[in-house]
Amino acid sequence: MKIKDIKVKSIRVGLVLALVCAMFVVGMMPHPTIQNDDKGWHVVWEGSLSDYVYAAEANPGAGVSGILEIFIINHTASPDTAYDENSSSDMESWCTAAGLGYCNADDSNIDIAHTTDFDIVVRVRGNQTICHDGSQFMDSYLRVRITSADLSIGADTEMTGVVSQNSSGNTYLWMNFYEDNSGSGYSISRDETAEITSIKFEAYY
Questions:
Q1: How far apart are CA 157 and CA 138, in angstroms?
Q2: Model confidence over 100-158: pLDDT tens digits?
Q3: How far is CA 64 from CA 1, 21, 67, 178, in A?
Q4: C-alpha distances in angstroms, 149 versus 7, 75, 153, 188?
Q5: What is the C-alpha to C-alpha distance for residues 197 and 184, in angstroms, rounded to an integer?
Q6: How far apart are CA 66 and CA 201, in angstroms?
Q7: Which of 21, 71, 82, 201 is in Cβ range 3.0-4.6 Å of 76 for a Cys bridge?
Q8: What is the largest CA-CA distance in the chain?
Q9: Residue 199 backbone dihedrals phi, psi, to 5 degrees
Q10: Which DSSP string do the residues of 34-48 spell out, in sequence order?
């Protein structure tokens, strides 16, 4: 009877050890995760400068993400500070004061003073569906790329983004994207024409 009892106890101990080992191995295994394999860069709006005027009418519409305005603005040596401006009317006044201009709903031909150094600024608005991670707005989820052979801007050159307003109480993120020719600004000669052939506003979601 004693031998039988010992055998039964030994088997029970073996089963307990096996269960403990199995639980330890399962605990070390990676836990399953769920992810969106389709997440990537998506085009919010794409076209030339003239397409922008007729497609967006300078306003993407209520509740819609899009390009708000395009400025040919006086060149600044401190764009990251200057272009955090959140007032379109203020930026428009900077343009006109320097003999430059901005794209509006009526005309995409911007007449500017020759030999005046300028930067290109694209002002955008992104709503929560395209640039929010569930708890906050992400400026890295937005980008603008432009192309202009006339200004020697290569195909799909990514502009530098500056946040103009990002608040948890808002339903939108506002940003200004600029291209300043690596800090030198652009200029055109008298009677010269420069065309921006492609503008792409994109979001990562």
A1: 21
A2: 999 866 567 888 999 999 999 999 999 999 999 989 999 999 999 999 999 999 999 99
A3: 83, 56, 10, 22
A4: 87, 20, 6, 13
A5: 21
A6: 7
A7: 82
A8: 112
A9: -130, 130
A10: ---TT-SEEEEEEE-
Tell how strand 142-148 and strand 198-204 pair up: antiparallel
What residue type is 40 in one-letter code? G
Record the tokens describing residue 98, joined without a space.
Answer: 């320097």
Both tokens of 73, joined, read 């603005």
pLDDT tens sequence across 75-94: 999 999 999 999 999 999 99
178, β-bridge pairs = 121, 160
Q: How is residue 115 written in tokens?
A: 């030999």
Which helix (DSSP H) or strand (DSSP E) does residue 13 occupy?
helix 2-28
